[in-house]
Amino acid sequence: MRLRLTAVALAGGIATAPTSAGPLDPEATRGTLRVYADDDHVVVLSPSVAASTALDPATSIAIDVAADAVSGASVDVLSSASPVTVRELRVELGGRIARALGTGGVMVAGDARVSHERDHDAARAGATLRTELTDRNLVLDLQYRIGLDLAADVAAGPGGRRISHQLLFSASQLLGQRTVADLIIDVSLAAGYQASPYRHVPLVDSSWPLPTWVAEQTPDQRRAVTVAGRLRRALTGRWFVTAGQRFYADDWDLTSHTTTLDVSRQVSPRWLLGLGARGYLQDGADFYRSVYVATPMPVLRTRDRTLGPMRSLYTSLTVDRTLGERPTHLVVACGAMSIWYLDSTLQARRQALVTTVSWTSSF
After folding, report:
1. What fold, for 153-360?
2. Could you tell me if 132 and 146 are in contact, meaning their C-beta atoms sit under 8 angstroms apart?
């Protein structure tokens, strides 16, 4: 059993954070502090601050900066237990500009984001086009993103460069006064170095008692497509339900299915209760093996058990409390998660208890 605690504190002047998919809040500020700790000796501090403002009635801009400070020795950090303490600091800076075109519900936006840490640099840039049709009952979104990742050479192994492209289409249709249906199609291509410089793979030789350790090697290109559907419905004035299904496939011969179900009830104007469940299953990549033999030398090899066949189940209970006269929210979520790695010699099952506490205030 693995215990995990996550605490989140937010303060600022926003109710909704700007995202790459939606319009910006014309005047907003936000400060966030996330604290993560578990019994695997890992502590993560993640402070961030974001601000947005309107340049004119049709144009808004936003900037944000965030950091992640990691300290610990964990199977989650290096994908294998480490006897030494790992310390990492990642800093991220992002910006976005959005403009409404006329009064027909058309919006265009552009965004960019860069991050730096000791052994990895990343940059992302994207453009979004949104339009509303049929008396604003249908919302269409089209996004394109390009990314560059640079994994630095480290003592444990080589690094490399990866370029990624993503095309995302989404449609939200109002089916009635109580029901909204969403369709999401995501197509991506990544080319370049996609392994981990820290991960080495043991090769077993029947003529030698000890394995030979070699650097991980994965394909240089990965094409993937994701199709997801979601249905949101207000059953009554107090009961709400959301159901979703997601399918993923790539040319590494990995496919996965995700099913989600969330039910919430407005107990009173200040209390909201929610129950959620998510089930996930996948087969393995075609080159994944629990054990690799040394002869002949496998060209592709990985020790990443998340590329093998696996199953997971997550359930949660959420309590949302509105405090005071101003829009201040206290949210407490408690969840349990089980993951089954069906073909892993390192760990066949993982269990976790997750608690999240968040506080949001605006002024």
Report:
1. Lipocalin (2.40.128)
2. no
